[in-house]
């Protein structure tokens, strides 16, 4: 189990809380939007997006080597 700080949805478009699972893995190029915080901005621990969850690049690299489809994910406050 691993816990991570994230950038989440703003109050008008909140990130849903609850239990989910990884549906699929998608390989992105380093220049693609959505590949961690380097390309989309935001400060960890803030609520500024449209319900999306953004993680630090180092956490994304850690995750992609360890999880795959079917892995449970719990989103809490």
Report on this structure.
The chain has one helix at residues 57-64, and strands at 8-9, 18-21, 47-49, 72-75. The protein has 77 residues and is an alpha+beta fold. The chain has a single domain, classed as Beta Barrel (L,D-transpeptidase catalytic domain-like), CATH 2.40.440.10. It has a two-stranded parallel sheet. Strands 2-4 form a two-stranded antiparallel ribbon. The chain is globular, with a radius of gyration of 12 Å. The mean pLDDT is 84.
Please specify the SSE layout and strand pairing:
Blueprint: E1 8-9, E2 18-21, E3 47-49, H1 57-64, E4 72-75
Parallel strand pairs: 1-3
Antiparallel strand pairs: 2-4
**Quantity of strands, as a count:** 4
- Which regions are unreliable across 5 or more consecutive residues at pLDDT < 50? none
Elements, N to C (H/E): EEEHE
| Helical residue percent band | 10-25%
CATH superfamily: L,D-transpeptidase catalytic domain-like
Quaternary state of the chains: single chain
Strand content: 15-25%
Shape type: globular
Any idea of the CATH class?
Mainly Beta
For the record, the count of structural domains works out to 1
Please work out how many helical segments DSSP would assign.
1
Architecture per CATH nomenclature, i.e. the level-2 architecture: Beta Barrel
List the strand order in the largest sheet.
Answer: 1-3
Cα-atom Rg, whole angstroms?
12 Å
Q: Main β-sheet, in a few words?
A: 2 strands, parallel
Q: Termini separation (Å)?
A: 16 Å
Structural class: alpha+beta
> Residue-averaged pLDDT, rounded?
84
Question: CATH topology, which one?
Answer: L,D-transpeptidase catalytic domain-like
């Amino acid at each position: 189990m691993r816990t991570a700080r994230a950038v989440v949805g703003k109050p008008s478009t909140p990130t849903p809380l609850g239990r989910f699972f990884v549906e699929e893995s998608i390989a992105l190029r380093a220049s693609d939007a959505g590949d961690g915080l380097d390309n989309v901005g935001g400060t960890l621990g803030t609520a500024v997006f449209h319900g999306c969850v953004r993680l630090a690049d180092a956490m994304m690299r850690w995750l992609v080597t360890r999880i795959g489809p079917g892995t449970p994910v719990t989103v809490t406050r």
